[in-house]
Automatic annotation (TrEMBL), chain A:
One of the record's GO cellular component terms: extracellular space
Keyword Protein biosynthesis part of the UniProt annotation: no
Family: Belongs to the IL-6 superfamily.
Protein name (database record): Cardiotrophin-like cytokine factor 1
Classification via InterPro entries: 4_helix_cytokine-like_core, PRF/CT
Role noted for this protein: In complex with CRLF1, forms a heterodimeric neurotropic cytokine that plays a crucial role during neuronal development. Also stimulates B-cells. Binds to and activates the ILST/gp130 receptor.
Molecular function GO labels: cytokine activity
Keywords: Cytokine, Glycoprotein, Secreted, Signal
Domain of life: Eukaryota
Compartments, as annotated in UniProt: Secreted
From TrEMBL, chain B:
Organism: Lamprotornis superbus
Gene Ontology terms describing biological process: positive regulation of cell population proliferation
Gene3D superfamilies: Immunoglobulins
GO cellular component: external side of plasma membrane; receptor complex
Transmembrane segments: none
Pfam families per the UniProt record, alphabetical: fn3 (PF00041), LIF-R_Ig-like (PF21177), LIFR_D2 (PF17971), LIFR_D4 (PF25552), LIFR_N (PF18207)
Main location: membrane
Name used for this protein in its record: Fibronectin type-III domain-containing protein
Biased composition (Polar residues): 1110-1130, 1147-1161
Keyword Transmembrane helix belongs to the record: yes
Length: 249, 1161
């Protein structure tokens, strides 16, 4: 499962890296895993799409939390319009305001944000950040699949844009974790990540998956915003634990 | 003999072998069967068949639910008792299995029967039935005693064949079907032996075909179709019989008949497997579907009664509602055509309650199919949206759904067209027609199949494009392509075909890299590149050549095609020193199909060449005769072949060069000191490339006598000059004239005419004039807003005298033949003659006057009017107002040589008013001729030339200011401007004596408009006038060509301005006096007056409500509307800021006298 997660992230980094000129960073002190390196490269490559992550200046943990928080709010906002459009695309009853289907067993593959709130609060920052990181990585992969199947070009375009932003959030969370000195989760826990297209047996179930994906995304973003807000208050903005250096290779 | 079949279950079924009926109760629960079969004898098989047939009927008629259970009754354990051989045991087992396979396994579970052999009795009721027309089964009844005895059975068909006899223990035999009749003798053995003879005719034999057997019934769930296969058993029947097959489709647990169809076939004396399929309007998943079949064989030769066979056992396709755990909405994700009627069902668990079913956003009424299945019916389905229409079944605690894709079958592709641009790829395009409404995997797919090569290419098309495109590779050594464009989507398919020879469908790419590789004064070499391998064809390229002074021309070049190569071409016969724009496009030469797009253009200027010809020249002696002035005309652009830098004038006496002069542009004449001698003058025009051939003219002027001077006035647009033929003028005539522009020496112009000419019109309008303007900046503005034609081409102005001279050309030289004085149009004299009064006596005076200067006559002078009347100031006024003054006397003097007149019979000690006027054919010079004086040249203060000599006692002269009190409105468009005398009299301008000659200089009336910008007027208005006053007033007239850019909200005011036109100056002076007051009233006046003193810039900001207080808006708008400055006559060009200003308010401006420049300066 770890491999597929890495694969997913890597492919993201490769496909969405129209870097010009190639800008690379290294981590100081050197990261313990190749994954971090990949992540940072991906982060830098995605700089133009990331309003919240700016490599050119040194980021304190507080700052990067703030930026992650901002990005989360931005994504929340973005998702609100995207979800509206997408649910309209799915057609009734998915776009009906009171549509609340029972969650099918197969939809559990989408990481659920329905953990009890007290339980969630009881987790450590690290655990919560890691859960966030894992969840968005997975959600992102699902979202990419979604993107590939949509019939209309305009919606595809918007989904791609959202994916890019979400990718930014994943990297941003990674950045926060690094700046706080937490290791990045090696791979997502829970059920195995989809290797490619989730094999929904029919179109209706696929639509249900899409519906749940959006719903979960919404819940995750809502909760993440709360998490980062809390974290922000905890961490003074001046602390600098991550140092990025632009260096020509 | 006893056949006893005993089952371990209670026996619900009774079988009566005699009646052939069976009463069967369905078992309460599935049974494990143990059958005990006691078969002491061997003939169980046929008995079982009979039993089975009966049971089948019994079961299917009465207990359909039993059918369902049959699968559960998988085993029959048989115990054989008695001395049954192994072989027999096998036969019995097989028989039972066969019965089971026939669809009635259960009947054995419930069967117990006794087959008793009774004592012998009389056989009766012999019945024969044939199933195959070949053999028949005959049965008969016997009395109970005879049941178990042996029977001797004999039959004979006719007398010729021997009787066939055999013994049987049963009461049924199989014997051949007779052709006509058969005689049967049945002899029962037993206690009471009985023999009976029957004669059976064919008509007594029933024909009931064998019950058909369904070989297979296959469901096609996606298409909701059933495929049925069965054998026609044709091998047992003679060839060629018609067979009818009745097929019944039943549905639901209750086996409701959905449809019954009849299928026809012909028997071929072979076993043929027939098949039939049926499409259900309800998905097969929704509920169970059953099929059974029976047949009727129309054996026409057979005369006995014919009947349908029994129904075959029903085959079933069980619905999802019979499957444990089966649920969902069906059909699943179907693709259907728009307009279809659709049935959807929702299969759910038995214990779930269904809430509703929706299609799209609409809820539909459900019908129950079974306890676990409900259906809705949607009629005339519409196109679904791109993700499909959802069919949702809401259950009490769950949700099931399906997505239906409703779209259109693809249209046949229209306008299929294939072409190649490079002989590598064939590009086919077509119009797809109506969108299918299907997306993703269900979208319409295209493939291009080429029949000759068998190659198939699937096309990736962009649905969004109106034209679809598909590429097919050019195949080696293939020219003709037989394309079939196949279109398909899940709903349907279509195709379109095209046969093309690609060498005839060449559409080259746009030529690139167009460059000029060489040029001279008349030719240009071009090179360009075309991507593509055209080795097999010739290319036709078209080069477009255009320049600013010639029409666009196309040159075709045919070149052999090459592989991705450059091509060159040379263009000849170009004009020197001309900037050409060139571009190229190409096509196939032999089979034109399409031009490529034009390449990017290049520009190239050809080099200069020497001028093509020498200039037109003329010469004149200076008045002193000491020098000769040589004139030449500029060469046209097409003749100059470059920029003319100079003219070289040389003077030869025979072969001796007397003088050589180089005259640089822009001079068009030169003076040669020649003295009294003569020479031949040669003039060449020179540009950078060289000199023109020389033009020659001799300086010799032949003496002429009797030179007359004629008068001529233009008719139409030119001055007509005619003369008698002079036969000795061998080389034509020349009409020469002079454009005088007042103080400057006149510029000479001429025209040549051939010797047979006696009548020419010197046109006032001339094209191709070289026009140099002193005020170039004016010209720009001027060209924008004026009729260019008027200014540029009017050679002759009205009211100006032109002197024409007609010369004849002889080999020796030129001879003056005639002078002509002419006007383009006669106008009234500009001034009245100056006159003085002399020799005053008590009753007479002598009035003397002077000639009016020629330039002020503005026409041929016809005479003078001398008016005089008694009285003071206003004595002469009534005449103007036509009210008639009895005292007024007018003398018309038509003798132009007369320069004085004595007036007699005057009263002494009386004041007289005198007025002397001159007139031409153009009219009379009025006293108060409205003119706006030019302050610089104003004679207002000089007033009258002879004022000092004037007799003050008799001639009332008041030094009234020369206040312009009447204005002249000039129509700008008219070539001969109309003059209106508005005769607005200012109270300030009341003078007793006409201001003859006192008016300021008036330019001739070609003036379109003028901006007499400033009147530096020492205010001399009588005190009765408006008090106060400004010393500087600017008058701006409103030009007729003035196109105000109107702000919508300003319309009313602008309207006023435009309609007001030119307002009398009188009014203006009133407003002008108030200017500095800035009172609201005054602003009002300013606005309505239509023109404004420049000093009040606020007033130009008309309409902007906040503008008076806004400095910015003042600046924004002020200068653009003010062509004249306060203190100078300079025309103000709008500043940069104003050009950028989005809403210039007043774009009108005026022209001053500047524009009276001669057009051919």
């Amino acid at each position: 499962t770890g491999d597929s997660e890495t694969l997913c992230r890597l492919s993201a980094a490769h496909t969405e890296c129209p870097c010009h000129p190639p800008l690379r960073c290294c981590v100081s002190p050197t990261g313990d895993s190749w994954g971090i390196f990949t992540f940072l490269c991906a982060a830098l490559c995605n700089l133009p799409a990331l309003p919240a992550l700016n490599c050119s200046e040194e980021l304190g943990a507080g700052q990067s939390i703030q930026q992650t928080y901002d990005l989360t709010r931005y994504l929340e906002h973005q998702l609100r319009t995207l979800a509206g459009t997408y649910l309209n695309y799915l057609g009734p009853p998915f776009n009906e305001p009171d549509f609340n289907p029972p969650r099918l067993a197969r939809a559990e593959r989408v990481p659920s944000a329905t953990v009890d709130l007290d339980l969630w609060r009881g987790l450590t920052d690290n655990a919560r950040l890691a859960a966030n990181y894992r969840a968005y990585s997975r959600l992102l992969c699902y979202l990419r699949v979604l993107d590939g199947q949509v019939g209309t070009a305009e919606l595809r375009h918007r989904l791609a844009h959202f994916c890019a932003s979400l990718q930014g959030l994943v990297l941003s969370i990674g950045g926060v974790m690094s700046s706080l000195g937490y290791p990045l989760p090696a791979g997502p826990a829970g059920p195995p990540a989809p290797p490619g297209a989730p094999a929904a047996p029919n179109d209706f179930l696929k639509k249900m998956d899409d519906f749940w994906l959006l719903k979960e995304l919404q819940t995750w973003l809502w909760r993440s915003a709360k998490d980062f807000n809390r974290l922000k208050k905890k961490v003074p903005p001046a602390v600098v634990t991550l140092r990025l250096e632009a260096r020509g290779f | 003999m006893l056949i006893y079949l005993q089952l371990s279950s209670p026996c619900p079924c009774l079988f009566s072998p005699m009646s052939g009926h069976l009463n069967l109760q369905p078992p309460e629960r599935p049974l494990r069967i143990v059958a005990r079969l006691l078969l002491p004898h061997s003939d169980v098989l046929s008995s079982l068949e009979t039993i089975a047939a009966s049971l089948l009927t019994c079961e299917t008629k009465n207990h359909p639910s039993e059918e369902k259970r049959k699968r559960e009754l998988q085993e029959v354990n048989l115990t054989f008792k008695g001395g049954l051989s192994k072989k027999r045991q096998m036969e019995v087992t097989d028989a039972i299995m066969m019965v089971r396979q026939a669809g009635v396994p259960a009947r054995l579970t419930a069967v117990a029967f006794q087959y008793l052999r009774g004592s012998l009795g009389d056989p009766q009721n012999l019945k024969c039935v044939t199933h195959n027309l070949h053999k028949m089964l005959c049965t008969w009844d016997v009395s109970s005693e005879g049941k178990y005895g042996q029977t001797d059975f004999c039959y004979t068909t006719n007398d010729l064949t021997p009787q066939v006899c055999f013994k049987t223990k049963e009461r049924r035999v199989e014997i051949p079907v007779p052709e006509s009749s058969i005689t049967v003798i049945i002899k029962s053995s037993g206690t009471a032996s009985a023999t009976k003879e029957f004669v059976i005719h064919q008509k007594d034999i029933s024909f009931i075909p064998i019950t058909p057997h369904i070989l297979s019934l296959m469901p096609d769930f996606p298409n909701s179709a059933l495929n049925l296969k069965w054998s026609d058993n044709g091998s047992v029947f003679p060839y060629g019989l018609d067979a009818l097959w009745q097929i019944q489709i039943l549905r639901k647990e209750a086996m409701e008949i959905v449809t019954q169809v009849t299928y026809y076939s012909k028997l071929t004396h072979e076993d043929v497997i027939l098949s039939w399929s049926w499409r259900s309007d309800m998905p097969l998943e929704c509920t169970s579907h059953y099929v059974k079949i029976r047949c009727y064989i129309n054996a026409t030769q057979f005369v006995g009664p014919k009947d349908w066979s029994d129904w075959s056992p029903a085959e079933v396709i069980p619905g999802k509602d019979t499957e444990p755990g089966g649920s969902g909405v069906f059909p699943l994700d179907p693709v259907v055509a728009v307009g279809s009627d659709l049935t959807f069902c929702c299969v759910h668990e038995e214990d779930q309650r269904i809430t509703n079913m929706t299609y799209g956003s609409k809820s539909y009424t459900m019908t129950q199919l079974s306890s676990r299945s409900h259906a809705i019916r949607v009629l005339n389905a519409n196109v679904s949206n791109s993700s499909g229409t959802n069919v949702v079944c809401r259950l009490e605690n769950g949700l099931e759904g399906s997505v239906v894709f409703v779209g259109y079958a693809p249209d046949s592709p229209q306008n299929l067209s294939c072409e190649t641009s490079n002989f590598l790829i064939i590009k086919c395009t077509w119009k797809p027609g109506r969108p299918s409404g299907l997306y993703g995997d269900r979208r319409t797919k295209y493939s291009l199949f080429e029949r000759t090569s068998g190659k198939n290419v699937s096309c990736e098309v962009n649905e969004a494009n109106k034209d679809h495109v598909c590429d097919f590779p050019v195949l080696p050594d293939q020219k003709n392509y037989d394309f079939i464009l196949g279109v398909s989507n899940p709903i349907g398919q279509a195709k379109s075909s095209l046969l093309v020879n690609i060498t005839q469908r060449v559409h080259p790419k746009t030529p690139e890299k167009l460059t000029v590789t060489g040029n001279n004064s008349t030719s240009i070499q071009l090179r360009w590149f075309i991507n593509g391998s055209f080795a097999e064809i010739r290319l036709l390229c078209q080069i477009e050549v255009s320049s600013s002074h010639s029409e666009r021309k196309l040159h075709n070049v045919s070149v052999p095609g090459r592989k991705s190569s450059t091509y060159t071409a040379q263009l000849n016969e170009l004009h020197p020193d001309t900037k050409y724009q060139l571009r190229v496009r190409c096509s196939a030469a032999d089979h034109f199909w399409r031009w490529s797009d034009w390449s990017r253009g290049v520009e190239q200027t050809t080099s200069e060449a020497p001028p093509a010809r020498g200039p037109d020249i003329w010469r004149e002696r200076s008045p002193s005769g000491e020098s000769l002035i040589v004139f030449w005309k500029p060469l046209s652009l097409s003749e100059s072949n470059g920029k003319i830098v100079s003219h070289e004038v040389s003077c030869y006496l025979l072969d001796t060069l007397l003088e050589h002069k180089v005259v640089f542009e822009p001079s068009n004449s030169t003076e040669i000191k020649l003295g009294k001698s003569d020479c031949v003058i040669k003039v060449v025009a020179r540009n950078h490339a060289g000199s023109s051939p020389p033009s020659r003219i001799t300086s010799v002027g032949l003496p002429s006598d009797n030179v007359t001077t004629d008068q001529a006035v233009a008719m139409g647009n030119g001055i007509n000059i005619s003369w008698d033929s002079y036969p000795n003028m061998t080389c034509g005539y020349i009409v020469k004239w002079c454009h005088s522009s007042g103080s400057e020496p006149c510029s000479v112009d001429w025209q040549k005419f051939p010797s047979n000419t006696t009548n020419v019109v010197i046109k006032s309008v001339r094209s191709g004039l070289k026009f140099t303007v002193t005020f170039e900046s004016f010209l720009h503005i001027f060209l924008y807003c004026c009729s260019m034609k008027y200014f540029l081409a009017a050679l002759f102005k009205p009211g100006v005298r032109y002197n024409f001279s007609l010369y004849g050309c002889k080999s020796m030289g030129y001879q003056l033949l005639k002078n002509i004085t002419g006007y383009m149009k006669e106008l009234p004299p500009k001034t009245a003659p100056n006159f003085i009064v002399e020799e005053t006596s008590s009753d007479s005076i002598l009035v003397k006057w002077e000639d009016i200067p020629i330039e002020e006559c503005r026409g041929f002078l016809k005479g003078y009017l001398l008016s005089f009347a008694k009285g003071e100031k206003d004595a002469l006024k009534p005449r103007l107002s036509n009210s008639g003054n009895p005292e007024l006397k007018v003398n018309n003097i038509t003798d132009l040589t007369k320069k004085s007149m004595k007036i007699l019979d005057l009263q002494g000690k009386t004041s007289y008013q005198l007025e002397l006027q001159a007139y031409t054919a153009g009219g009379i010079k009025e006293t108060f001729y409205p003119e706006i004086p030019n302050p610089e040249n104003s004679k207002a203060l000089q007033f009258q030339r002879n004022i000092c000599e004037g007799n003050k006692t008799l001639k009332t002269l008041e030094m009234n200011p020369c206040t312009p009190n009447s204005v002249e409105v000039v129509e700008a468009q008219s070539t001969s401007p109309k003059i209106e005398d508005t005769e607005m009299m200012s109270p300030a301008a009341e003078t007793t004596v006409p201001e003859d000659g006192s008016e300021s200089e008036m330019e001739n009336h070609v003036v379109v408009s003028y901006c007499p910008p400033i009147i530096e007027e020492e205010i001399s208005n009588p005190p009765t006038d408006e008090p106060g006053g400004s010393s500087q007033v600017v008058y701006i007239d409103i030009q007729s060509m003035y196109q105000p850019q109107i702000k919508p909200e300003e319309e009313p005011e602008i309207d006023l301005v435009t309609t007001a036109g030119y307002k009398p100056q009188m009014q203006l002076s009133i407003s002008a006096l108030k200017i500095e007051g800035h009172s609201p009233v005054e602003e009002e006046l300013d606005k309505t007056a239509g023109y404004r003193p420049q000093a009040n810039t606020n007033a130009w900001n008309m309409g902007t409500p906040d503008s008076p207080g806004s400095v910015e808006s003042n600046n924004e708008n002020a200068s653009f509307g003010s062509p004249c400055s306060i203190n100078s006559r300079q025309f103000l060009l709008p500043s940069k800021d104003d050009e950028d200003s989005p809403k210039p308010i007043n774009t009108g401006w005026s022209f001053t006298h500047f524009f009276q420049n001669k057009p051919n300066d």
